[in-house]
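Dear Dr. H.,

I hope your travels went smoothly. While you were away I took the liberty of generating a structure for the chain from your last submission, since the lab meeting agenda had it listed for discussion. I wanted you to have the full record in hand beforehand rather than looking at slides cold. The sequence, exactly as received, is reproduced here:
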Amino acid sequence: MGIYGQTLRSAITSKGLTLREVAKSTGTQKGYISGICNGKISPPSAKLTEKLCRKLNLSLDKMLAHAVIEKFPNGLPYAAVREALTDREVGGEHIAGGRPKG
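The corresponding predicted structure, in token form, is as follows:
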């Protein structure tokens, strides 16, 4: 189980919610949320991550970072990151565990 799933499971438990409640409030299925929490399903889309973060009062930035790292353990191709971010945001920062290549 990755950090994304662990964090999600912990937040659900600490708020005293059920998987069914979280799924219903975010427009998804209980089994899908369970699979994410158990690491059997990779982290969801940014849109669902945003809904989960809102519901569970989690940091969207941190959860998106966990999702990217889990989906791309060897780092993102720099060209894809460059297209998605502005120069200021890229600015020589480490991206998903790898250093941007110019």
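Two observations you may find useful: Residues 3-14 form the longest helix (12 residues). The chain is about 60% helix and 0% strand.

With kind regards,
E. W.
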